[in-house]
Each structure stands twice: as C-alpha cells, then as structure tokens.
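Entry:
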Amino acid sequence: MQRILVNQTSIAQTRTENVESAPLEAGQVRLGVESYALTSNNITYAAAGFDIGYWHFFPSGTEGWGIVPVWGTAKVIESRSDQLEVGTRLYGFYPMAEELVITPAFAPGGFIDAAEHRAKLPLIYNQYTPTRSGNDDDDHLRAILQPLLATSFLIFDWLQDNAFFGADQIVIGSASSKTGLGLCKYLAEPADRAYQIVGLTSEKNRTFVEGLGACDSVLTYDQIDDIAQIPSVYVDMSGNTEVKMALHDHLGDQLKHSSAVGLSHWDHFAPAQKLSGPKPEFFFAPSQVAKRRAEWGPGEIEKQITAAWKRIAADASNWMDVKVYNGVAASEGPYHALVTGQADPKVSVVIRP
C-alpha cells in the first residue's frame, strides 16, 4: 500500500513510501481510495496538525512524519463487518494513501469510524456518507468543493449569527482560496446586505478574484492602507502575520472582530504577536455545526450546507479547472505547489490512486 508522509515540523518535506497492508480484524473494513482532492485546506491541516489534532486521524507509526487528511471517495474492497458490504462507496475523510481500514458503525446519514483512536476527534471528520457509483466528475467536484464551501457557509452563518459584529465592511484575507471565494459569494447573496465585501489577495491572483464578481472591491496585500476605516470584520484564510498586523494597525478600534480560519500562508505565520484592536479568535467549523445541531435539531444544518455548496458549485466550470493526476505518488508535486504558494487558484487538483 502506497502513502504520502509529511514532515510534521517542516511540512514542505514529503516522501512516498510503500507499506504492507495489515490484515483485517473482526468488525473492520478495508476501503480502496478511488479519488481525493488536494487544496489549500490540506495545507492548513498540516500546519495545524498538532494544535487542532489533524495528525491523529491517520497515525503513520513513523516518528516525526504524519499523514495529511484529504477529502474523497473510496470503495469497500474487503469486509469483516456486517454493516458494510464489499462494493459500497463512501465519501469522507481519508489519508493520502491507497487505502484505509475503518471500524464502521451506523450513524445518521451513513457511518462513522468507531476506531478507538478517533473517538475523541470531531464527529464531522469521522462521518462517512454512502454515495452512488457513476460520474467521476461528481466525485471530483464534491471532494474539491464540499469541504471548503461547507466551511465558507458556516463562517457566513456564524457571522449572521453574530449580526456581523455590527460591521459595515467584511474583509476576507486570501480571497482567492476556495474557502475565501466561497465566503465572498455567500456574503454577496443577501439582496438587503448592509456591508461591503473587500477581498484581499496577491497581485498575481487579483484578476482572478475580480472575475468572481462577488467582492465590492479587491485589494492586494500592499494596499491595506486603502481599506476604508469603518467598522469592520476581518476573516483571515491565510495566517499571514505581516498582513494581519498591518490590517489591525490600520483599522485599530474600527476592527470589531478578527477571525482566523486557515493557514495557507503557513510560512508567514508567527504566533503570539501583539496586535492592535481585538485579539484574533480561531473559527472552528465543527463548533458551529454542533451549535446549530443543538438549536435546530439533527440534520437541518447538514441540509443547509448541502444546498449552499451545490448552489455555489453550480457555475464552478466558469471559475475552476480540474486537473486529474494518477497514482498516490503524483500527490507530491501539487502538494508542494500548494505549500509553497505557487498553485494556480483557478486549477483544482484531484488524485486518483
């Protein structure tokens, strides 16, 4: 079985290795991974692997090296469980590898991995949803966009839940990321919105973000002084400390909330910096899901997420090209492009092991 290992303290280092597949124990099934997406989301998983626990999902057994989780589709290829038959296809959280062994247990909408090492990890990452066989393009689109746009929608829902913190302006850092562009699009949907949407991005990605048509203005990172000094919220997808410091200094008391979501600029992240204005707070999507489940009952937030990501994905062909690579080892090139910030925001990568 082939897999990709990532150096846990220097996440730009990767290696491909072959390991023996372990025999199944009673109650387990073996999933053969059919396809998975690689996005900036996966860089956040690696950069926050210790802080949030992403390294714990798929232990590598190799000191100092971890397996970065990805979203994708797999098929049961061997079963010692009476809950899942060979041939069943499941969408969910997988390792960058050819296969995964889980201990399935029934759950609303599908199954969870009831393996002991995953028991205390967030439920949203332990769920596996049955999906019909058929169109590869549907699998690819789901793997690329569903996790990212679900996060975008949950941020939008959370902002609504907090009355946008009284802001007249929402500033999105790394607006070219799919989570960023998704948030811009959700923010632009309400016809009666009382806030402006400002997308921050690099000079090379500015035209791409402008072409989305979701932002009222698009500025580059060296134009922070051009941001209006009015009540604002900052949603940071990049984790770039220099940008965050500059924006906090510029907006000062007019910054009503600062939210940290991603670490796509992980190499520019420096924790424990003293900042002007409010202290940044980390947005953890599973917490908003748990809150809405408690308030609305099981299944309702999931329905809204599904409707929302499909709504934004409907015109994805206008702003996204999918590039498919074959073989687990092919993950290393696209992963390095993402981790070094060289990836084209218009191109989305799918790996077919």
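Residues 148-287 form a domain with the Rossmann fold fold (CATH 3.40.50.720).
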